[in-house]
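Appendix C reproduces, verbatim, an entry submitted by the partner laboratory led by Prof. M.T., so that reviewers can inspect both the input and the predicted structure.
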Amino acid sequence: MVQSLMFSTMQLVVLVSETEWHTLQTEVSRLGEALAELLSPTAPPDDVLTTAQAAAYIGLSAEALRRARRLGRIQGVRLNEKDWGFRRSALDAYPRRYSRPSSASSPTSTP
């Protein structure tokens, strides 16, 4: 039960039971930890590769990577008025069905 008392200096006093006080302290502590976790630095910033570097990284030609960006298959980062870059995490998440198979895994034709 919460009781309020008013003093002549107009200060509000709230009386709280000991168990409720401990509950409130625990909740404030939990909220403080949650806030600290939200404000803590997360993973380091992602590397941004140039178009040529990104194309080599995922095994496509630079033109195929540009085409994939224009078609919305992969998200690019504008580096300047002319050039685009690609985040390493976006390249890692790029579906492999769009990438060129490596020469070791491609079947060889026999006459």
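The two ends are 91 Å apart (CA to CA). Additional entries are available on request from the coordinating office.
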